[in-house]
């Protein structure tokens, strides 16, 4: 049986790193739901649209074709045949993605895209509403969290790696605001999925967090966890 595993949690909790590591260890496909929102945000910005213009953004969704892949450089999307990776991670796109993520039409488009791509199973998918809305039937659900200061430091290092130089205090304030936005939005708010295994990554290395998830997968799924790509 091909299993589906979800990993939810706030920004900076380590979802992407852990999900990639877990998928690699299990031989599963990795899906980053945040990249889909970023792709919509990038497309909206390229067309000169306000990311909060619901009618305008909804109008471009029917014209978007998306596929996901992973190579030696990491996870990427192909939007209308164009490969997108690093350009999805700029501060401008990050800000716009948090705004388009509030739109019901965008959330439906992302949900449908993820379900289509994960249809065959053998997937580790990460995001903020995967175990609650996108894949409520997932075989195994994780919820990762960490102290806000630790998450802010991780996000600052990530942005520095992309050539940005954010101030730690400003990053912390922005992250706290994003937490509030994600947890209070009307459409698919961030919350712990029913039955999810909670893991605090504050004091865990990425390798330790992946090992914890692997141990839980072995205990919860047993022989079902093996699945070819």
What does this protein look like?
It is built from nine helices and eight strands. It has 229 residues and is α/β, with parallel strands linked by helices. It folds into two domains: 1-27 and 123-220, P-loop containing nucleotide triphosphate hydrolases (Rossmann fold, 3-Layer(aba) Sandwich), CATH 3.40.50; 29-120, P-loop containing nucleotide triphosphate hydrolases (Rossmann fold, 3-Layer(aba) Sandwich), CATH 3.40.50.300. The longest helix is centred in the C-terminal third of the chain and has 17 residues, at 168-184. The two termini are 12 Å apart. Residues 225-229 have low confidence and may be disordered.
CATH topology of the largest domain: Rossmann fold
What's the order of the H and E elements?
A: EHEHHEEEHHEHEHHEH
Fraction of helical residues = 40-55%
User: Class by helix and strand content?
Assistant: alpha/beta
Task: Quickly count the helices.
Answer: 9
Number of domains: 2
Count of DSSP strands = 8
């Amino acid at each position: 049986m091909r299993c589906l595993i979800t990993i939810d949690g706030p920004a900076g909790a380590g979802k992407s790193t852990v999900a990639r590591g877990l998928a690699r260890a299990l031989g599963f496909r990795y899906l980053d739901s945040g990249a889909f929102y970023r792709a919509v945000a990038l497309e909206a910005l390229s067309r000169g649209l306000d990311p909060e213009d619901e009618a305008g953004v909804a109008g471009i969704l029917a014209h978007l074709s998306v596929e996901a892949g992973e190579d030696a450089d990491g996870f990427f999307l192909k939007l209308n045949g164009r490969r997108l990776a690093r350009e999805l991670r700029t501060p401008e796109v990050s800000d716009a993605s948090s705004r388009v993520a509030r739109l019901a039409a965008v959330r439906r488009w992302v949900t449908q895209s993820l379900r289509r791509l994960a249809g065959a199973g053998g997937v580790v998918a990460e995001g903020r509403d995967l175990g609650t809305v996108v894949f409520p039937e997932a075989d195994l659900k994780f919820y990762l969290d960490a102290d806000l200061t630790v998450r802010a430091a991780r996000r600052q290092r990530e942005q520095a790696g992309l050539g940005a130089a954010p101030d730690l205090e400003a990053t912390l304030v922005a992250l706290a605001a994003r937490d509030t936005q994600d947890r209070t939005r009307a459409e698919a708010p961030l919350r712990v999925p029913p039955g999810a295994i909670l893991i605090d990554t504050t004091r865990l290395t990425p390798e330790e967090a992946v090992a914890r998830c692997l141990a839980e997968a072995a205990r919860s799924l047993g022989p079902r966890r093996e699945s070819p790509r």
